[in-house]
Amino acid sequence: MQKVTIGIPTYNQKEFLIYAIESALAQNYPALEVIVADDCSTDGTEKVIKKYFNDSRFKYHRNRENLGRIKNYRNLLYNLATGDWYLNLDGDDVLLEASYITQCMKIIETIKDLVFVYGIRREINANFIPSIISSNSETVLSYVVFEGKEYFFKIPRMRKDRLNHITCLYNRKLAMEIDFYRKNIISTDLESLYRLSILGKVAFLPISAGGWRRHTTNVSAVLDINKLKENYSLFTNVVDYAFQRMPEENTRIRKWLEDAVAKKLYTNTLSLFSAGKITDIFSLFRHCKGISPKSVLKVIFNPKLYVKLFITFLKGIKIDF
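The structure assignment produced for this chain is given below.
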């Protein structure tokens, strides 16, 4: 039986971490290890989770020095985990289905050349207390399988089935071979998963598998303009990799870049406008023009953008020029 590691990187998240651990240990897959990588928390994390130390499936590791988010991800994946398959569950997130790993592994055992399986991510608030569902794990739930390269080109158009980190169970060996979590950017997870998707088949299990907790310290909610600009290297790095793996798909890859950048620029524009950061919007547009001019034009001439901006304006936001 193949082994699965659920890695839980954390830093000063003791109020949420217990729920992440319990949702991981609630998984009914037999060959499981759950590893917490504590990046030198100062909030008493170790004392809070001591009650799990007697569970043979559970391991706790405290870094000797603070590594930061990305290096902690890498250390967990490369040095602490021993599983054949790996799922990264941040310390403030939860799994919502007790048979989720079992279901994923049944798919993996059935379909050859899968690189990852993922489910639906639900957004939950800071006060959400999860109730882990325990369903029949003997029956394989319905799922969809994509050829990896075709899945890659589908990414900019994905909605309910869009890829997310917290439900993604991926091939650990292959992930390490392609240098997972290599970029120190907000979306290092997607940069890694997008590249991995090209290398084999992808399965989507349409169940609410994970809860992403929204709160004031979410890394992905950061509106620092410099970090937002840096994050667009997600697309340029992935495209460079795609050109190497699929040189015959030059036209489709360029279209992928155009669509992916436009989609991100659209959502970033709405977020910055809501925060009253108008000058940052212009700065971001200039930055994206250097990556894909067509992406900028696509956003500028999107009528839905102006409708949403107008609605936001009517709600009475404060704008500081």
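Interim note for the steering committee: Residues 222-314 form one domain. The mean pLDDT is 93.
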